[in-house]
Structures are given as structure tokens and as C-alpha cells.
User: Fold these one by one.
Assistant:
Number 1:
Amino acid sequence: MKVNHRIVVLVFFIAHLGLSQNQAKTEISTLLDAWHKAAADADFEAYFSKMTDDAVFIGTDATENWQNEEFRSYSKPYFDQGKAWSFTAVERNIYLDQSKKTAWFDELLDTQKTLCRGAGVLNKTKGQWKIAHYVLSIAVPNENVAELIQLKKEKDSLLLLQYKQNQ
């Protein structure tokens, strides 16, 4: 029986791609779990070491759009008190670009705010994955949106007015 070497090489190449993609997803998931654990443990250095120097964190409040240094300043008092936040992923999806140097993800989180949704982008530099962008949102059942809109209406109106005046 004659074996076509091209087919053998192709099979190994495809298997390697699958393994490296699974390995990257495992590394990313491990990093995100460690990042959330560092917050739960109020470990400031461990938490921020998992983010790029120019990372952005967008929180649940409309005014929470922080560059890394701003987010450090905002969150430092919480970490210093030993009471940051506790997020546990109950579902996570991870996607990689072809170069396997950029990834994006979404995760459903069990938090002190009940269910939240996190989503973000990671970059791999110098062999390490780092969080470059993270967005946290409160998951609201569709049947409760009208009620939520009423709760937010006054503050949102003031914020919109402020943003329009600053344009």
C-alpha cells in the first residue's frame, strides 16, 4: 500500500491547528478564571497583571468607561478593603483570529449583581495572553426591560443632555 505523503502532512497539520486552537482557548479560559479569582481575593497586582497597559474596562454604569490607569484608581480602594468583586463564569465562548494572537470572548457570570454578561478582547504578546478590553453588562430579561427603562429614565436623560452639550 502506497501512502501519499501530502495527505499525511495535511492530516498532521490540521490536527496541529486543532490542538493549538484548543490549547489557546484553555490558556485564555485559565487566564480569565484567574483574573476573576484575583478580584474575589482582592489581589490588586494579580488582577491588573492580566490586563494590557492600555486596557479598557467598561462597567455597568453608563459613566464607567475607564482606561487602565483610571480603572486602577477607581478600584484600588475596593481591593485595599479586601472587598473587590466576585465573578464566576457559568458559560464562556472563546474565538480566535487566524494568527492566534487575538481572541475575543463572551461569558455569562454569576456575580453579586446576579447574572451579568462579560465580553472582551485579548492579545497575545511575548507569549502571554492579556485582556485588552472588557465590557460588563447586567443581563436583563426582555420582559423586564420596560420596567428597567423607567428606573433609568431620569438619570439617562440627564446624562444624554450632558453628552450632547459636550459635543
Number 2:
Amino acid sequence: MNPILLDLGFINIKWYSVLILIAFIIGYFLVINKCRKKGISTSIITDMCFYLVIICLLGARIYYCIFELDYYSQNIMDIFKVWEGGLAIHGGIISGIIFIYFYTRHKNLDLLELLDIFAPALALGQAIGRWGNFFNSEAFGPVTSLSNLQSLNIPKFVIDGMYIEGSYHHPTFFYESIGCLLIFIVLMLIRNLKNIKKGQVTSIYFIFYGIIRFIIEGLRQDSLMLFNLKMAQIISILMIIIGIFLLIKPYIFKQKVKN
């Protein structure tokens, strides 16, 4: 696949960066629309989103570089070449949540309420952003056969794009994109339920994405490693644990109050 969307001569505009930008813009409007309905100051949220984009990109890049330290310690200037790829979503999520935590404390906002607002937008953003991996011919899985991919009803253009270095590969980016899109739909359906508690939309995102990413990461060929363990699978397990805690937390504390 050609990673370049537009060649302007003096600069190349890549699919990867454009898709990330689109994901941020759509996510922003989803968040603002929900905040407006909840009576949360949109000017405060707009300011937060401006810094959040920067923090998440930095966090995603730093996280990636840490686990590719052997290369980047020898090629320092390549750390700044974000346009070439190398952003880890887990780094963006971790840095983003930390930033939102301190921002909500500073602005006297409800952390869990905001995380619940951001969760669907994040899932949709991931579904969109994963296609950057497609155009970069990265984040693919093991070698497979053409007939196997066709049996999975994967679009032909995706299958064609997964013919890399003489072999067909599982399009793990595609699997994750579909998974994130389904998470987005689920979160949008449940977030307005009467019995939903604060933090539970976020908890369902953590649980579902943790499960999906853990499974898909087992197929990926370019995982960031911690010794012999795939770092994304470690983080996915932690996400599932945190998600389960957030899901049952309202009922646990309610029971303690009754006792």
C-alpha cells in the first residue's frame, strides 16, 4: 500500500496522520455534543481537548520509543519523526487518563463522568485510526492463505493490501478496527440507560477493548515486548481488571453503606 495520500513536492501528507486527525475531530464533536447535553462547559472541555491531543500523542510516542529503546538510543533524531508511524495506543490512553485526572481536579469536574463521555469517542477514534496501519503495511498478523481470508468475508481491497513480501497475512488492524467499532456502538447504546452508573461506560470499554486487544495481540508480528511478554497483552489484562472493578464498584460500596 502507498502510505502517502498527497505528494505536494515540499511535503508528503500521509494517510496515517490524516486518519488520526479525522479521528480526533470526530471524537471532539462527539464529546462536545454530549457535554452540551449534560450542561458541562464546552469552553472548558475544548481547552482540555486541545491539551489532551498533545499529551496523548506525546504519551503514545514516548511509550513506543521506550519499548524500542535499542533502536532509538542509536537513532535519537528518529524519535521526532512521528509522521513515520510508531504510536502506541496504550501510551496515549495512559497519558490521556492521567491528564484528565489532574485536569478534572483543577477544574472541579467529575472524573468518571468525563471518562464515560470520552470512552465512546475513543473507541470510534481507534476504529478509524487503525486504518493508518493498513496504508503503512504494518500491524499485520501471521502468514495465511488467500482462500482463508476470502472465507472470512474480508473486503478484497483489504486482502490485496495484506499481500506483503510475497505472502498473505491476517489483517489484524482490520480485526481491531471492527472490534472497536462494535465497542463504540455498544457504548452509545448503553450510556443513556437509566440504571447505568458513573464509570460503567468506561468499565465496559476497558473490559471489551482489553479482551479484543489481548486476542488480536496474540496474532500480531510487531508487538512491543517486555522480556518475552507482549506488553499490549499485559496492559490488556490490567484494563480488564480495572474495568471489572469499575463495573462492580457502585454495588460494592452501596452494599457497605447498607451494612
Number 3:
Amino acid sequence: MKKPSLKTAKQLFPFGLVVVAFIICQILVSANAMPRTTKSLLIPVCAYIVMAVSLNLTVGISGELSLGHAGFMSVGAFSGVVMATYAREVFAAPAPVQLLLAIIAGGIMAAILGVLIGIPVLRLRGDYLAIVTLAFGEIIRNILNCIYIYLDGATLRFAFNNANLPGTPIFRGPTGVTSVQRISTFTAGFLLVMFTLIVVLNLIRSRSGRAIMAIRDNRIAAESVGIDVTKYKMMAFVVSAPLPGMRGALFGLHYSAFTPANFSFTASILILVYVVRGGIGNITGSISAATILYILPEKLRQFSDYRMLVYAIVLIAVMLITNSSGAKNLLMRIIPGRKGDKDNG
């Protein structure tokens, strides 16, 4: 029987890391050994892992700096809540079905938005692309501040002002959504993380992924051998757009209320910090950084005087561990045969 190669083991490592973490957390939860505050962070951690991995596809693999992921996330969150409410009130769907439909709706809406934004935006490069995607995120947030959605029987009614529409309000502009039925689960978050890893890693290791990385490394050389630059840049951008939308639906249905202000450009910057600290192009690093850097500030609240100091030290330590050549050389010595293996993941 052929033994699995080191390359195969490395490719499966992100999946194994997530599965082991999920099993440990489930054991701790079932044994009531996990603090309540930590338990409440499990779903947000899954959501931020999805965001970090999807943004790494754009920033690390495609080589384009996008700051519009908060816009995709907001569209997914609000469309997911509307879908879940409609499924519950009209079809009396159970909670798991509501959550599934909400995640699918959030992904579809974000994908449509990604195509509409990607067509004009991906003709830009560098700082210009970052500025325009940041502007699109803010435009989406301000549009959401003007939208009102009511459920009247089996009919959804929309308005762009504070009109007194008939029915039950679901989404009310700057007030956002209130009285959301919290149906998100840690298991759903785990499955969404696994789905994200399957999509992103399979794209990276495919022929299309190699073309995307070739464009990132040398655009002129890629064009000279017949690679369609616009096509593959659009592919990376559109694949990364539905994942924040699905994450937004999961995240939104975890809280009882939220507003468009929760999805400002600072949310995109926060995700970018996770990607950079975990290592640009390093999917495993994005998983680790998103987990550690989201949980750590919450755990340090009891040390109010030194909280940000410790957080800053940990940020520097994570960056050094994931990006330094010294750490990589040390890993090469510990793990035989690691040297020369340049596969992503």
C-alpha cells in the first residue's frame, strides 16, 4: 500500500487542523468544561476564518489588494436575515433549513455584486484597485442605510425611504434589523469553514490557480504565453465574493440585532490584518491568525491596563512566526523533507 507523501499531508493539514479543533471544542462544550464567554466566540471565529481565507485568495493568491469585503459581508448578512425570516414566517421552515437558505441567499447576492463590481474594477491595479473597492464597500453600506424591507403576508415590500409600508418590518435602514432569531450554530460554522477551504484550496491547486499565481508573479510574462489576465483575475475575485456573503449570513443570524454601521471599512481592515499577520498566501496562517487575534482581545479584557500592550506583542510574535525565514528554517529541520516544498496551504 502506497504511503501518503509529505506533499499530500501538507495539503490536508488545514482540513485536519480545523477538524481537530472542532472535535476538541465539541468535547469541551459537551462536558461543560468551556467557559461561557469562550463558547460565545466559536461562531464568530468560524465567520472570521472564512473571511480571512477568502480575502487571502484575492490578496495572497491573486495579488490584488481589495478592501471591499465588508460590503459583500453586509449584503450577505441582511439578505440572509430576510431569507430566514421569509422562510420561517411563510413556509414555517425549521431552523436548520432557514439557516441553509440564508447562507445560500447571502452567497448568491454577494456573487452577483462581485460580478457587477469586478467588471469595471479589475481593470485597475495596485492602490487604485484598493481605493475603488474601499469606495464600493462604503457605497453599499450607505445604500443599505436607505433601504426598508417589510413582510406583508407572503409578499416582501421594499422602499428607499422611511415610508409606512404595510406588514412586519424586517430591515429598517440605519436602524438595521432587530429581534433576529438566533439560529446560527457552531456546527454550521465548521461546515462553512470546510466548504471555504475546499473551494479555495482546490482553486489554488488547479490549472486556473496556477494561472492566477502566474499573473500575480509577472503579468507581462503571463500575457506573453496566452493567459487571459482579465478572465483569471475576475475568476479569483468572483470566487472570493460569495464566501464573505455566506459568512455574513452566518454572522448576522448569530446576533439579535445589527446595523449597516457594523460593516464599515474598518471591518475590511481588520480582516486584512488577519491575512497579513498569518502570512500572505498562507491559508493555514490565516486560520491561525483569525482564531488567535479574534479571541485574544476578548480574553485580555480582565487586564485592562495592559490589554493592548499584550495584544501588540502577540501581533508581532504571530507575524515573526508565520513569515520569518528563521522560523521556516527551524520547521525544515524538525520536519524531514520539508525543504523545497513550495506548495501553498
Number 4:
Amino acid sequence: METQELLSKVRKLDIKARGLSKNVFAGQYHSAFKGRGMVFSEVREYQYGDDVRDIDWNVTARFHHPFVKVFEEERELTVILLVDVSGSQNFGLHGQLQKDITTEIAATIAFSAIENNDKIGVIFFSDKIEKVIPPKKGRKHILHIIRDMLDFQPSSSKTDVSVALESLSRLVKGRSTTFVLSDFYTHNNFEKALSISSKRHDLIAIQVYDKFQEQLPNVGLIKVVDAESGQESYLDTANRDVRAAHATAWKHKQEQLNSIFNKAKIDNVSVSTTDDYVTALTKLFKQRAK
């Protein structure tokens, strides 16, 4: 991508994502993603209704009337975006590529994170770890992330979600809140890796896919190319049975994916390239805030 074109895209995405994080997700993100716990802040005089278990007996004895400990949320989180950059991310027949939607969602989450004083890092993966951007704070850091997401060229076109999940704890020390952004279109079983990783990290799965993957349009005979393997085949989309078989296979795949997420107790949401991802993220945040 030419430098001027890239800078223009970065600026547009900066304005859009920053606006969403401030005007739409400002409170929702904070409510949905809690800090690591409660830490002591100060003491104050006891007030009617305070929990007697919070009384600081040392201070109370010194001043001869009750004082209570005040705690506040230890807010700062380490947020990781685990981003699929495999060949399938360049798929899209409805005006936008999966990669475009993934980038917008990632940018919105990133700005929401720094609005709450959280650190944000990124791990790009295909069937291997392609690039790691260590967690930091600040708008300049977010712009670096956006630029890389728009212009990054992976060395592999294949996908292996398990490789990304297994590498997460090795690359990120301590607990993190990690968003896995992928279409999860992989032939590799990642259920075990997801289960193990979810015990150490707070995982959230965001599936981004093209509507074409869900339902074939009736446009006659078409050639399709697997973006990851390069394999070519032809589909007669005018054939009702072909379209029905495709829809059934997709439904079965989604049921399997939901089963994997449910077993590991992973919050998740699916977004197509024609969906409003703001609605999807709002639903996800509200679900977690309950």
C-alpha cells in the first residue's frame, strides 16, 4: 500500500474508532472488563450502613471512634488482540473484506482500552506467530497498531488458532484480557488449547466472516479458490441442492464452534461483513457486564 493511501486510511480509522470508543463504548467497556481486584485506598470515618467487616481497628483505637477501610478497583488491565492475518481474511464479496471489519473492531477495542488506562498489545498469527506488538499505552501506540493491521503482509496464508493460543501465555506474562479475532476457519482442532488458555487468561472470541460463507448467492457457475490452500473448484450456485448443502455445512460448523466456546466458557460474538459490528460489540459488552 502506498504511504499516502496508508496514512489516509489510518486517519479515517483513527477518527471513527476513537469516536466510537468515547461516544458509544465509554462506559460499556469499563463495566464489561473488570480490573484485577480491589485494593486498599484510604480510611474514613464510619457511616451508618457501612460493613462492620471493613472497620480498621488500629485507626479506630487510635481516634476512639470507628473508621473503615475504603477499597477501589485495581483498574489497569493488559489487553491483547490475537488477530488472524491468514489468507481467508482477504475474503469479502459485499464491499468489505473480513480484514477491514477485523481492523475496525480491533481499533475500537484498542481505543476503548486506552480510554480506561489499560495497556494494549497485538499478536498477529496465521499457522504461526507472525508478529508481536508488546502492550503499551497511548494514542501513538494505537496508531502504530492500526497502521500495521492495515498494511501487514503475513508470511503464511494458513490458519492454526491453537498455535496462537499456545503461544499466548509464553508471550504474555501474567493474566490478560485477550480478544481472539478470526473467522475460525481452520482444519486444526483448537479446543484443547482454548480450554487451557482460558484458565489463565480472560478470553473473548470475535468471529468475523463473509455472508457468502453462510449462504451462497444464486449467480450460476462460479470458480472458488481456497485463500489458504490455493485449491480451485467450481460451484453451480444455480443448483438449489448445492446452495442447501452449503448452508447446512455452515450451520453444522457454527454449531461445532459454539459448542467449543460454551465448553470453555468463552464469551463470543459473530459478525459478518454486512453486519453492524457496533451492535455486536454492544451486545457482547452488555452480556459481560451482567
